């Protein structure tokens, strides 16, 4: 019986699978590729964690390297342990003043810039960073560098207003067909902020009335028109 058992168990080895089935040079190459993938994955997870985590010694010391890794492909729009996440819908709209062919002046209706981006993103598996972030970041940049009376807080405030103005010029100037090429005189923007209503079971009550922030009219410069016509 012992001889029978030994003979039955001593068969030819089964076929090798996975990396073991490769020749030695390919095994080395596969091992190196796997090591690189694991290393990059670990670095990516660490960078994203430092980006979304509260400020600490490491993120302060290596903040530039973290930002270079994260932006723009891996941008996060939330913060780890955020005590009060955003509960508002902010829609940015713009209108323009044109000089008509007969020398008069015409004002356009309000153009829903945020609605345009939303329509471009909805159902799009690969929306562009411009559609997702350009207007939103420009508006956040403006509001963070201006007070409630739209007075800039230094040079960054002036730059943010110029950036937002040129976005409006690009969007409206291209939509208003039939106007003279140099007929765009001024643009104006506003935001319509609406609270996201809580679920019925929460018991929380929020004012459903939208809040409108109206910015002043901005004169369109020749540099703005050059950017539009490129």
Automatic annotation (TrEMBL):
It comes from the Bacteria. This is DUF5819 family protein. The lineage of its organism: Bacteria, Bacillati, Actinomycetota, Actinomycetes, Kitasatosporales. The chain crosses the membrane at residues 28-50. Keywords: Membrane, Transmembrane, Transmembrane helix. Pfam families: DUF5819.
